[in-house]
Every structure is written in C-alpha cells, then in structure tokens.
C-alpha cells in the first residue's frame, strides 16, 4: 500500500488531501509513524522524531494513529488478495508476498494479475497500491518500491542478475543502515561490488549472513511464499512526552500497552506464556524483564498484573523512563489450550 496510514487519513478527511501529513504525535517525544507523499518531499519519513519532522516541514499536519481503522482496511485488502491466490504471506498491515503461480483468477500473466489486484484494492478501499512482479521474493520486494506510488514494475528472469548488480546495496531488503555502513566501509556500494566478493570473504566479515548476501547479489532467493508463517510474538510500546519517575505514571503506561496486546491476542485467539516488559531510560539505556508462566495468558487481568510486577522490579529508579513496552511471546498451540476459558476482560 502507498503511504498506508497517511493515505487512510487523507481518504477519511478530505481537508488533508494534497497536504503534508504525518501520522503520529507532535510532542517533544513524538515519532512519525507514517508520512504522506507530500510530506516526504520535505524529507519527512517514518521513525523520524516529530520535532525534526516539523523543522523540515513547518506546515506538517500531525494526526493521531487509528490502528483499529488500519487493521480493518488491511483486512479488506487481504480479502482482495484471496480472490487471486491462496498463497499469501503478510509482512505487515500494508504489505504481503503473493505467489500467483497457480493462476486462480485465470489471467494471462503475472503482470495482468498485479494490475487487477491493484484495481480491486482501489475499488474496495479507495486507496492505491504498488506492486513488484518477479520470479522470487527478494526481487519482487525490490521491484515493489521502483514505481511508487500507484505503479508496478517487473523484473524478468533474463534481467534479474544484471538489475541487481546496478542497485545500491543500501536499497536491498534485509540490508539495514548498520550493515550498509559496514558494506560501504568495505568498499561494497552496489550489487556488482557485492557479487565480486568471494563467499569465504563474505563469511569472514558477515558470518552466517554470508550465503544470503552471496545469493541475492546474483538475484537468487529460493524462499517460498509461506502463508502459514508462525507469529512469534505480539507487542506494543509507547514513548512518554517526558521522562517519568513517578511509579503510578509509569505503570499507567504499562497497563495501556498491556491492554493493546490483550486486544490483539483476543482478536486472533493467540495466547502466549511469556510476558516481557521493556523500559528505555532517559540516557537511552534499554532493559527488559520477562516471566514465563505455567500456562498461556488468556486473562487480560493476568497480563496486566504480570506486566506491572515486571516493571516494579526496576524500582527504585536512578533515571527517568522515556519508553515502556509490553510483549507476549511463546505462543501455545490451540490444542494445548483445551479447557481454557476464552480471553476475558
């Protein structure tokens, strides 16, 4: 989806259309969750501190996130996907891999399939989407960014290896800013530079990731589209407007995050045994505290109580806390929850 959160806000509020919009909070601790394309022309991007975003774009309009709306729209999009394939692997609310080899819709090409999917998304949601079409996941992902917004791009088998060679490694999916800086320091700036490095050399510098980098530099990715990819955890976090030292204020934030996670677990009937609380202090030092319970947490009150107990283990505080988060993991299979009550609140 194109600038998904911001596009939903512009769709639902016509006064925001054509204007630079950031989804997030404008306070001193705020962070941009998403930016409209109008805002991106000023260098406003997701994860940018709100104060920096406002310096770059003084006319920037902040709107608070409405994740329940974004989840509902995402569900609409997935209904569209299911018209064309049963092999859907979500990456996030606004992005997924689709394997259309079986040609469920009976269309002549994958290119035509992508166009039809994008048209149906626009029809159902009033929003635009972009698509990448290729013979593996790595190339399709790269291609999906190539003609944004509201476009599509195909990387065919005969062009794949040479197309990768010309791309900057910083654009490779799976090469984050830290790895990109390391590659640049080693003289690797393009796919061609990466391809020229022997596997043994890559292993020396990148360890277990060497084979992956060796393959993608050649346009090779054998990963299947996995519609049953196992979800490992669910979490929620918040950054406070100011550093908090008062336990009551800190615990109120923890309880809000616990309620967010409880709502996700309830909606999907997925319950875990391990509860983790994260805290980031004023000096940006981060700590976590975890507890694994004998059985899955199916009661919101248990999750709330456990989360508060975990954050209390950090007291007394030498520094204020700027961020807290709550995560549930170690999910239990449904057949192991026989006799357990449904999630109660």
Automatic annotation (TrEMBL):
Chief location of this protein within or outside the cell: cytoplasm
What is one GO biological process annotated to this record?
DNA repair
Give the positions the UniProt entry annotates as the active site.
95
EC number, UniProt record: 2.7.7.7
Q: Needs which cofactor? A: Mg(2+)
Q: Which residues bind Mg(2+)?
A: 94
Cellular component per GO?
Answer: cytosol
Q: InterPro entries under this entry?
A: DNA/RNA_pol_sf, DNA_pol_Y-fam_lit_finger_sf, DNA_pol_Y-fam_little_finger, DNA_polymerase-Y, DNApol_IV, PolY_HhH_motif, Rev_trsase/Diguanyl_cyclase, UmuC
The reactions it catalyses are: DNA(n) + a 2'-deoxyribonucleoside 5'-triphosphate = DNA(n+1) + diphosphate
Q: Where is the site Substrate discrimination?
A: 5
Q: UmuC domain: from which residue to which, for each copy?
A: 1-176
Annotated family: Belongs to the DNA polymerase type-Y family.
Q: State the protein's name.
A: DNA polymerase IV
Q: State the organism named in the record.
A: Sphingomonas turrisvirgatae
The encoding gene:
dinB
């Amino acid at each position: 989806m194109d600038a998904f959160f911001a596009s939903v806000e512009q769709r639902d509020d016509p006064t925001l259309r054509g204007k630079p919009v950031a989804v997030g909070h404008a306070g001193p601790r705020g962070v941009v969750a998403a930016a409209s394309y109008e805002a991106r022309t000023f260098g406003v991007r997701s994860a940018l501190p709100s104060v920096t975003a406002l310096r770059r774009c003084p006319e920037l309009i902040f709107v608070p996130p409405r994740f329940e709306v974004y989840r509902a729209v995402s569900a609409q999009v997935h209904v569209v996907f299911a018209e064309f394939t049963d092999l859907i692997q979500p990456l996030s609310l606004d992005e997924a891999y689709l394997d259309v080899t079986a040609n469920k819709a009976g269309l002549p090409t994958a290119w035509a399939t992508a166009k039809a999917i994008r048209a149906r998304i626009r029809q159902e949601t009033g929003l635009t989407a972009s698509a990448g079409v290729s013979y593996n996941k790595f190339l399709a992902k790269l291609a999906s960014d190539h003609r944004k917004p509201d476009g599509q791009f195909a990387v065919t088998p005969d062009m794949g290896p040479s197309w990768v060679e010309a791309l900057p490694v910083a654009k490779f999916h799976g090469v984050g800013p830290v790895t990109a800086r390391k590659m640049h320091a080693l003289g690797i700036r393009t796919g061609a530079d990466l391809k020229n490095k022997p596997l043994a050399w890559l292993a020396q510098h990148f360890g277990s990731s060497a084979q992956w980098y060796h393959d993608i530099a050649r346009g090779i990715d054998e990963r299947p589209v996995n519609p049953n990819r196992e979800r490992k955890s669910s979490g929620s976090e918040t950054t406070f407007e100011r550093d908090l030292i008062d336990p009551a204020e800190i615990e109120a934030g923890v309880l809000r995050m616990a309620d967010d996670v409880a709502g996700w677990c309830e909606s999907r009937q997925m319950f875990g045994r391990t509860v983790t609380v994260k805290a980031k202090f004023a000096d940006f030092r981060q700590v976590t505290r975890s507890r694994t319970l004998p059985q899955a947490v199916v009661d919101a009150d248990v999750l709330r109580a456990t989360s508060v107990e975990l954050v209390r283990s950090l007291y007394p505080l030498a520094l204020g806390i700027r961020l807290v988060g709550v995560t549930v993991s170690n999910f239990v299979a449904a057949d192991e929850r026989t006799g357990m009550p449904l999630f109660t609140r």
